[in-house]
Amino acid sequence: METASVARALELSGPLRDLLPPVDFCCAYGSTLLHARPDGTSMVDYILGVNDPLQWHSENMERNPSHYSSWMARLGPDAVTWLADRVGVGVYFNPFVEWRDKRIKYGVVGMRDLAMDVLGWDRFYLSGRLQKPVHVLVDNSDIRKVNTVNLKMATSASLLLLPEEFTEVKKIVEGSFQPFQLMYRPMLQQYISEGILKISTHGQRKAFKQDCGVSATNELFSSLPWTIQRKMQGRFASDGQEILTRAVASSKDMAATCVRKSLRRQDMYRIERAGSWLQETLETRYSRAF
């Protein structure tokens, strides 16, 4: 298994060695990586983190001008970075790139923007991507360690959105159970040890019950990114100045409503298209982790 994993990593790293300028972070992702027998015609997707997107695109346009649309290649790297920051989600994608006998797509993002989204859910795009299984190929800035914070926030958000009691769900994406289990087991074990989450077995199914009291709710809520917590932050005046107080949720329903509204503002189209991503998809992934 380890030999196969190393061989797979070498295969996935091919474009980094032979095609693209150096990067500080790279992960491959997508359904192709979750299946033992992927379709040979499938596209492999990459997220590339670089310290200076303008410089990186300048070099890449010299190496690989065909990766960019004709009008973007004429406008140059300044237009690429402007489009990523002002119109996109901080990421500029080059899709349908032919490399040897494969087709790849890669998105380029600045390392600062990557870290801010992972830790703060500013745009909830890269953070959402890294809440799912990926194959990290380059990690000069230890993004994997930073992402453990993201995974804990995702676990906390999903528990706040789930009912007090829930059971395993059968709608599991084929081939994805083990990677998700490895990702989220530590967070769930922590909440079990703290008494926030309890698991019982009924026949072949597992049932989950969570503590919905104010103390447990605020333990979960305090793990969420500041972009969500500040929606419920208290304010009071002192000497003519407004002072922010610690965000406190008076009930689980209030905390869940805050989470739901905050995420819909940042990523409405993805959540609605998925049928409430956190309530349904995260439930599917997290409730099978034991």
TrEMBL record:
Sorted UniProt keywords: Lipid biosynthesis, Lipid metabolism, Magnesium, Membrane, Mitochondrion, Mitochondrion inner membrane, Nucleotidyltransferase, Phospholipid biosynthesis, Phospholipid metabolism, Transferase
* Listed EC numbers: 2.7.7.41
What is the membrane topology listed in the Swiss-Prot or TrEMBL record? Peripheral membrane protein
Q: Which terms in the Gene Ontology molecular function aspect does this entry carry? A: phosphatidate cytidylyltransferase activity
What's the main place this protein lives?
mitochondrion
rRNA processing recorded as keyword: no
Q: Which residues form a coiled coil?
A: none
Database matches in Pfam families: Tam41_Mmp37
Q: What GO terms fall under cellular component here?
A: mitochondrial inner membrane
Cellular localisation:
Mitochondrion inner membrane
Pathway(s) per entry: Phospholipid metabolism; CDP-diacylglycerol biosynthesis; CDP-diacylglycerol from sn-glycerol 3-phosphate: step 3/3; Lipid metabolism
Q: Which GO terms describe its biological process?
A: cardiolipin biosynthetic process; CDP-diacylglycerol biosynthetic process
Q: Does the keyword Mitochondrion apply?
A: yes
List, separated by semicolons, the cofactors it needs.
Mg(2+)
Q: Which domain of life is it from?
A: Eukaryota
Protein family: Belongs to the TAM41 family.
- Protein name per UniProt: Phosphatidate cytidylyltransferase, mitochondrial
The record's gene field reads LOC100828015
